[in-house]
C-alpha cells in the first residue's frame, strides 16, 4: 500500500461497531522543541505493520514493537476515547519527530485512516548584543543567538521599528539540527543609536529581541549597558534575577550601579565604590534585594529580588556611572501567580439538582474560570465571584448545578491567560 512510503507511522487500533470516518486536521500541527505535542484525530497500520509510534488494542496500550525513539514519550488521551476522539500526546518533542503521521482505526470489518503533518519549531535564546571593535568609521555591534529551528529571520531595527541594514550575517546548523546566527551592524556618529536585534521564528510567528543604546561618545573604552529585550517573567512568592551587564565586558567594582523604577530617586538597590548603600532604598524592597557581586569584575551587575509580589510588576532601570561616562538599560518585569489546584466540593441540593463548588486562590493577574465536560465542552456556571487579597493575589469561587439529565463528568479549570498556565480538577457525580 502507499502508506509504506512514509517513514513515521502512528498506530492506534480501536474497535467500533459501525462504519466510520477518520478525521484529522487539514493544517500541519506545530510543536515547540522540548515541549509536548498533541496529534488530534477524531475517531485514529494495521496488524501487519511491525513498527509504530503508538498502538492501542483491546482496551490497552501495546508497547511491543514500538519504535525505540518514541518509547516512554507517547500517551493516548483515553479520557475522550468513548467520544470517538483519540488524540496522541508526544512528550519532549525532538527535531526528529517532524514529518508525516498516519492515524489508523480498525474494527472487525472496516478500517480507515488519515494523514497529518507535525512541524517542529525551536525558539532560541534571547539575542546577546556586544560592542566589539572599530570598523568603517564607526562601532561594530554584534548580535548572537542559538537554538532556532527552522532557520530564523534576523534583523536590526531602531526603536521606531524601522529596519537597519546589517554589514554581515552568518547562520550555521549544529549537530542537533538547530540554527545559530550572528549578525553585525556599524553604528556611526550620525546614525540612530537606539537599536535592537530581533530574531523571529516565522513558523511560530514569535520573536525574541534585545535592545541597546550607543552613547554619542561611544568608543571601545566606553561601555554600554545591556539588558534583555523581552519581559522577565517571575512567579509570585519566588525569587527572580534581573539580568544586566556592561558591553564590552569590564569591571564595575569602582562604579556606581543604581537600580531604580519610576524615577532616579525611586531606588530599588544601589551599589557605589564597593559598598551597597540602601539608605535611599524604597521601603517595599528593604530586605528583599541582593546585588550579585561575584562577577562584577566582568561587568555583570544583575539584581536578585526575593519573594516576588504583584506590586513588583513594571519597568526597572539598570544604571551605571563612572567618573567619565554613564549608561542605562530598561527592563520589564511581569509577575504571574499560578494558584492552588481547584478544590471541588458538593454543596447540597439547589434548583432541582446538586450544587458543586470550585475554589482556588493565589492567582495573578485575575484568572479565567470555566466548567467543562470531559469532552471539552464548556458548561455554564451558576455563580462566580473573584476577590483580591492583601497580597495582591486573586481568589476565585464558582459553582455549577448538576441535574439528573446533565453531564455528570465535569471539571473545573482555572487559567492564567497572560502566561497560558492552567490548573484543572475533575469530579464525577454518580446517578
Automatic annotation (TrEMBL):
GO terms for biological process: regulation of cytokine production; T cell receptor signaling pathway. Residues 1-21 form the signal peptide. Residues 127-215, 223-318, 342-428 form the Ig-like domain. GO terms for molecular function: signaling receptor binding. Coiled coil: none annotated. Pfam families: C2-set_3 (PF22705), V-set (PF07686). It is found in: Membrane. GO terms for cellular component: external side of plasma membrane. Keywords: Immunoglobulin domain, Membrane, Signal, Transmembrane, Transmembrane helix. PANTHER family: BG-LIKE ANTIGEN 1-RELATED, BUTYROPHILIN. This is Ig-like domain-containing protein.
Amino acid at each position: 500500500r502507499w502508506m509504506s512510503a512514509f517513514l513515521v507511522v502512528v498506530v492506534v487500533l480501536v474497535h467500533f461497531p459501525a462504519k466510520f470516518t477518520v478525521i484529522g486536521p487539514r493544517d500541519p500541527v506545530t510543536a515547540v522543541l522540548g515541549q509536548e505535542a498533541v496529534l488530534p484525530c477524531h475517531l485514529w497500520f494495521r496488524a501487519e505493520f511491525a513498527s509504530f509510534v503508538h498502538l492501542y488494542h483491546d482496551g490497552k496500550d501495546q508497547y511491543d514493537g514500538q519504535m525505540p525513539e518514541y518509547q516512554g514519550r507517547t500517551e493516548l488521551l483515553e479520557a475522550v476515547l468513548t467520544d470517538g476522539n483519540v488524540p496522541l500526546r508526544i512528550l519532549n518533542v525532538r527535531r526528529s519527530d517532524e514529518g508525516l503521521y498516519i492515524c489508523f482505526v480498525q474494527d472487525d470489518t472496516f478500517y480507515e485512516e488519515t494523514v497529518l503533518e507535525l512541524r517542529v519549531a525551536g525558539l532560541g535564546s534571547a539575542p546577546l548584543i556586544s560592542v566589539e571593535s572599530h570598523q568603517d568609521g564607526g562601532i561594530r555591534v554584534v548580535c548572537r543567538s542559538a537554538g532556532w529551528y527552522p532557520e530564523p529571520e534576523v534583523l536590526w531595527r531602531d526603536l521606531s521599528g524601522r529596519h537597519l541594514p546589517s554589514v554581515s550575517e552568518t547562520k550555521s546548523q549544529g549537530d542537533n539540527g538547530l540554527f545559530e546566527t550572528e549578525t553585525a551592524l556599524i553604528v556611526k556618529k550620525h546614525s540612530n543609536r537606539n537599536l535592537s536585534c530581533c530574531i523571529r521564528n516565522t513558523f511560530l510567528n514569535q520573536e525574541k529581541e534585545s535592545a541597546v543604546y550607543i552613547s554619542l561618545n561611544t568608543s571601545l573604552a566606553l561601555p554600554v549597558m545591556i539588558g534583555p529585550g523581552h519581559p522577565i517573567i517571575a512567579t509570585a512568592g519566588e525569587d527572580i534575577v534581573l539580568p544586566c551587564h556592561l558591553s564590552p565586558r569590564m569591571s564595575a567594582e569602582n562604579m556606581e550601579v543604581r537600580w531604580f523604577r519610576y524615577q532616579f530617586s525611586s531606588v530599588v538597590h544601589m551599589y557605589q565604590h564597593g559598598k551597597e548603600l540602601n539608605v535611599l532604598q524604597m521601603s517595599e524592597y528593604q530586605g528583599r534585594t541582593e546585588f550579585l557581586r561575584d562577577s562584577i569584575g566582568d561587568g555583570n551587575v544583575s539584581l536578585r529580588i526575593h519573594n516576588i509580589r504583584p506590586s513588583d510588576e513594571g519597568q526597572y532601570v539598570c544604571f551605571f556611572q563612572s567618573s567619565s561616562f554613564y549608561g542605562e538599560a530598561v527592563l520589564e518585569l511581569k509577575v504571574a501567580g499560578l494558584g492552588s489546584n481547584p478544590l471541588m466540593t458538593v454543596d447540597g441540593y439547589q434548583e432541582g439538582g446538586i450544587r458543586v463548588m470550585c475554589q482556588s486562590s493565589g492567582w495573578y493577574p485575575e484568572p479565567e474560570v470555566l466548567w467543562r465536560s470531559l469532552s471539552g465542552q464548556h458548561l455554564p456556571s451558576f455563580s462566580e465571584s473573584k476577590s483580591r487579597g492583601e497580597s495582591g493575589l486573586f481568589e476565585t469561587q464558582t459553582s455549577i448545578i448538576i441535574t439528573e439529565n446533565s453531564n455528570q463528568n465535569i471539571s473545573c479549570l482555572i487559567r492564567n491567560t497572560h502566561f497560558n498556565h492552567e490548573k484543572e480538577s475533575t469530579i464525577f457525580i454518580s446517578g
